[in-house]
Amino acid sequence: MKTARDKKPVQTNKSASRKPKGFFKSGILKLVLRVVKLIVILFVGLSLLGVLVFRFVNPPVTWLMIIRGFERKAAGKEWKVDKKWKSFDEIADPMKRAAVAAEDQTFLENHGFDFDAIEKAYKKNEKSKKLIGGSTITQQTAKNVFLWPGRSFIRKGFEAWFTLLMEVFWSKKRIMEVYLNVIEMGDGIYGVEAASQSYFHKSASQLTNQQAAAIAVIFPSPLKWSATNPTPYLRHRQYLIMKNMRRLGPLEF
Questions:
Q1: What does DSSP say about strands 189-190 and 184-186: parallel, antiparallel, or unpaired?
Q2: What is the CATH number for 207?
Q3: CA 137, 61, 199 angle in degrees (round to 5)?
Q4: Per-residue model confidence (pLDDT) at position 203
Q5: Are the beta carbons of 179 and 195 closer than 8 angstroms?
Q6: Could you say which residues of the chain have pLDDT below 50?
Q7: pLDDT at 116
Q8: Residue 130: is it exposed, middle or buried by C-beta count within 10 angstroms (0-12/13-18/19+)?
Q9: How many domains does the chain have?
């Protein structure tokens, strides 16, 4: 008959039942990495899909239009999004040349980025409180169609990504067409057709060189400046744009 002394104590392997140090941390890290990987895949897929869709389908609205609409409502004004889409061939040639002359003179040659303009803008912004941009027409279109207004590094990073996609999958002709149809041209006014009707009471297909330059000159600040009531500064800018238009000559899209 066995006594209590004869009974061998059961040894438990504490190290086997205890999780290794850092197990939970590594598990959480793996989960986070999987989530990040999934988000990146979704973002790349959806952004690629959006760029491909808008290559053929005209963007119905932009984030800026929505934001401006709510700003008008907050100010006690009625909702206003005045826009009328015009195809590339329905927009007068002077308007296309004025846009290039005013905003991106290397538009047909660059691949979405003008690094000389970016460098010049950076140096000027270091010395001046008034910030200026060095964005190309493709970059501005990427911002207008796919993103929100702002100057954060995150938004600029997204802008660069969409710019690359648009340069790969869109033609320069399509980029210019979308750009001239969604750009803000005044309080609740978007695109050159709505601007042409509002300022000159004619279609964008009938714009003269002078009228096209008057519209292009207000691109940087359409809520502050007027195409039909320009300041001396704007008149000088309009003269420079028309001078550049003559230098550029016909554009080969």
A1: antiparallel
A2: 1.10.3810.10
A3: 70
A4: 97
A5: no
A6: 16
A7: 79
A8: exposed
A9: 1
